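Methods — Computational structure assignment.
A single polypeptide chain was analysed. Its primary sequence is given first, followed by the predicted tertiary structure written as structure tokens.
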Amino acid sequence: MNWKGVFPAVTTKFHQDGSLDMDMFFKNLEAQVKAGVHGIILGGTLGESSVLSLEEKMVLTKETIKELNGQLPVILNIAEGATQDAIFWAHKAEELGASGLMLLPPMRYAADARETVTYFKAVAKSTRLPIMIYNNPVDYKTLVTLPMFEDLLDCENIQAVKESTRDISNVTRMINKFGDRYNILCGVDTLAMEELLMGASGWVAGLVCAFPKETVAIYNLLQEGKIEEALKIYRWFLPLLELDIHPKLVQYIKLAEQMAGIGTEYVRAPRLTLVGEERIKVENIIKRGLEHRPII
């Protein structure tokens, strides 16, 4: 598994009646592939995993792998409350042909450091798939600390971290402590350029769902050392990227996908599509972005 590049955390597309819209899902997937992304992440927050049935998650995983046909690695997110359920999904992901896993700490129960490390190790030992730990204490209330990552060093298939602590200096701390043992991927759109410049190897992106070309362009330009060129795109992009750090990021990004022509705004309850002043505000941000979209 090459944990480098842009990895869209793709949204799950629905029809207005709430059923899966695989045609629109594949249309967006095609746009991601065409833009040159480096992998696809299924079943994250943006994928509305918490409101998908077990069967729907399997369909999405199986059909994505089939559609991509080896063009890109497919990473399945695991966000479970029980260790046995996380292990079930690790086995199922391997069985369905996924390339890797993104693994959150235990959900709902606030596990301490020993319990979290034990959970991670149990999942890692249950599968041959490479794993990226999702470190997001802001949204999920569990901080995976440097000592915890040190305890995980013997799990060779734990290879990467989705860095979402909102602390840019944590990239440097990880590199100072572990060198290149863990690949670090920025998981916060508004900090992506900064973390890539500080040594992150990739970007688990949200607004890429609506703006794949621009996201990949920033990454590629930075790899080429063309910081000024990347900065011009990033400055245009920032008001849109800020849609990723709001509790309604799913609704906001799905509306952006719809306005960009590669998605629909339909979400599954309890989420509701945007209305009123909030909708107008978000539409205006997206409209301005589209009107001044850079030529890539």
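Note: Residues 5-237 form a domain with the TIM Barrel fold (CATH 3.20.20.70).
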